[in-house]
Every structure is written in C-alpha cells, then in structure tokens.
Here is the input.
Amino acid sequence: MLVRVSAFRLYSFFTHDYLTCLDKCNVSLSRESISMFLGWQIVSCRVLVYVCVLNLTVVHFVLRAGDVIFGFLMTLFSL
Here is the structure.
C-alpha cells in the first residue's frame, strides 16, 4: 500500500508539472510574435513537457509491471 501511495504522489507530481508547463507554453506561444526573447522559454518548456510525458510513461509501465510481478508472486505462494 505504501508503494502505491508513493507511486501516486510521484504520478501527481509529474502530472502537475506537465499541466503547469503546458499553461506556460500556451502563454508563451501566444506572445511569440511580440518578442523573440521568449523563444528560449518556449523551447525549454517544450523540452520539460517531453520529459514529463516520458516520466509519466515510465511511471505507468513501472506500476503495471509491479502489478504483474506482485500478482505472479501471490499466485506462486498461494499454491
């Protein structure tokens, strides 16, 4: 149960960062024509979004793999 809670907190952390970064990207993209200075912010934000998506994917697969392994071990020990 503790692993589940920790994984959920990790998932929530990455999701929050991802959504916050998307908001910043939208604001930056709408002001792109005003100033070229915002270009580096847009690029860095997009990189952060990709990293967040990758982290979410990794967390998802780790949780799935953990469920499969745990289920297999429970079945094995119940025999």
